[in-house]
Amino acid sequence: MIEIVSIGLNMNTRVVTAHIPNELAEQIDQLSARLDRPKGWIVKQALTSWVALEVKRHQLTLEGMADVDAGRLVDHASIDAWATSLDKPA
Predict the structure, then answer these.
(1) Which residues does 18 contact at the CB level (< 8 Å), separation at least 6?
(2) From 19, 41, 51, 79, which residue has the greatest number of CB atoms within 10 Å?
(3) How far is CA 39 from CA 10, 23, 47, in A?
(4) What is the pTM of this model?
(5) Rounded-to-integer distance, Cα 57 and Cα 51, Å
(6) SS percent in the chain: helix, strand, coil, step 5
């Protein structure tokens, strides 16, 4: 279990507790020692990156669904012909 405790002047934080596999916790320990950073900093960096990626993934999914709803599609035969053309010499 890792408990992240933020202590400092920024009061816009809160404690988050998560149970994680021992192997992952050991990797965080090793990164903490190698980077000379607190474990909480490493977890914060990882969560920030993951959340940003998920937000972008969700945004792209919504854009794709809007394209489908608007009829902006490419049929399977066209994609198949394009993929087949990649194997042919120029």
Answers:
(1) 1, 2
(2) 41
(3) 18, 14, 12
(4) 0.70
(5) 10
(6) 60, 5, 30
For residues 68, 60, 20, 24, the Cα torsion angle rounded to the nearest 10 degrees is 120
The tens digit of pLDDT for each residue in 37-89 reads 999 999 999 999 999 999 999 999 999 999 999 999 999 999 999 999 998 88
Residues 6+ apart with CB under 8 A from 25: 1, 2
Q: Which residues touch 28 (CB under 8 Å, ≥6 apart)?
A: 2, 39, 42, 43
Cα 45 to Cα 28, 37, 48, distances in angstroms: 12, 11, 5
Residue 32 · residue 45 · CB < 8 Å: no
d(CA 90, CA 88): 6
* Separation CA 13–CA 40 (nearest Å): 12
